[in-house]
TrEMBL record:
Keywords: DNA-binding, Transcription, Transcription regulation. The lineage of its organism: Bacteria, Bacillati, Actinomycetota, Actinomycetes, Micromonosporales. InterPro entries: BlaI_family, WH-like_DNA-bd_sf, WH_DNA-bd_sf. Belongs to the BlaI transcriptional regulatory family. The keyword Iron does not apply. This is Predicted transcriptional regulator. It holds the Pfam family Penicillinase_R. The keyword DNA-binding applies. It comes from Micromonospora echinaurantiaca. GO terms for molecular function: DNA binding. It comes from the Bacteria. One of its GO terms (biological process) is negative regulation of DNA-templated transcription.
Length: 131
């Protein structure tokens, strides 16, 4: 059971700790945020405006965030959902396993009963559409 490596040319570079924190704040926001709004949303970290601006610019350059000019300020939003990102990470982790079946077995063994039921349902639905 071999699967080709998956890559996303838009955001395949790993995130640093501060970039991850900013992405989490973007994912949790109800809509696009300006740099000032992001500084306010992350006030507990005590980040300077220029630091947040640089991180958001880097996330845009790396393809993690999109931005639109609104007046004189950019509004930033995630390029993909957190769930798409996590799904991509899971697929990449699986593709890197030497024994993908064993990796899947360990993953399934670690699931709660609710997670396993959700997976069964998803696989059933996928089976229904593959026919």
């Amino acid at each position: 059971m071999s699967r080709p490596r998956r890559t996303d040319p838009g955001n395949d570079r790993p995130l640093g700790p501060l970039e991850s924190a900013v992405m989490n704040a973007l994912w949790e926001a109800p809509g696009p945020l300006t740099v000032r709004q992001m500084v306010d949303a992350m006030a507990d970290r005590g980040l300077a405006y220029t630091t947040v601006m640089t991180v958001l610019d880097n996330l845009h350059r790396k393809g993690w965030a999109e931005r639109d000019l609104a007046g004189r300020a950019y509004r930033y939003r995630p390029r993909t959902s957190r769930e798409e990102h996590v799904g991509r990470l899971m697929a990449e982790a699986l593709s890197s396993a030497a024994d993908q079946q064993a990796a899947l077995a360990r993953f399934v063994d670690a699931m709660t009963a609710e997670e396993a039921a959700a997976l069964r349902e998803l696989l059933q639905r996928r089976g229904d559409t593959d026919s």
